[in-house]
From TrEMBL:
This is WG repeat protein. Keywords: Signal. Residues 1-18 form the signal peptide.
Length: 170
């Protein structure tokens, strides 16, 4: 009987998807690992704010996003270098420092382990994340926080807030 239960459990695990929906009951499509509420959304993802990205996260993983408090810019790590997603110096003044001791190494969605380092690691070779979708975040998000990222459904671009202005990427 134990072998039957074990075999059934292992079979069930092989069919499970690690898909997460936030603010709604289901993700859009089978190729989505993380998805957010579709309409009336005014909330984006707040990226981690770190001191000196080039020194704090070396070597970093491609696709790492953060707000660098040193030069007050939103950055992405790609091909062994940090790429600026903010055009000009932002404003990190509203950032509240977290004095709580960190526990664990972060959350992983899509796998049981990972070699990547991050607060939230989405690990999949056949699923992608969908950013929170916001209609005109530059107008509709009342109090954006430095390091906020979302998808602008009006301009059809990625929008990042650097603490001063919204920056848009196609």
């Amino acid at each position: 009987m134990k072998k039957i239960i074990l075999t059934f459990s292992l079979g069930l695990v092989s069919f499970c998807n690690a898909q997460v929906a936030i603010g709604k009951s289901n993700v859009n499509g089978d190729s989505t690992i993380l998805d957010f509420k579709d309409s009336d959304n005014w909330f984006g993802i707040i990226l981690p704010a770190v001191q000196q990205a080039s020194e704090t996260l070396t070597p970093a993983n491609n696709g790492t996003f953060l707000f660098d408090k040193t030069d007050q810019k939103v950055k992405m790590y790609e091909n062994n270098k940090w790429v600026m997603l903010s055009h000009a110096k932002g404003n990190g003044t509203p950032i509240v420092n977290n004095a709580t001791a960190e526990v664990g190494t972060g959350a992983i969605i899509g796998a049981s382990t990972t070699s990547a380092k991050g607060v939230l690691v989405l690990e999949s070779d056949n699923k992608a994340a969908i950013l929170p979708k916001i209609f005109r975040p530059d107008i509709n998000v009342r109090s954006p926080y430095p390091g906020m990222i979302c998808y602008d459904t009006f301009n059809k671009m990625i929008a990042v807030f650097d603490g001063s202005v919204w920056n848009f990427w196609k």
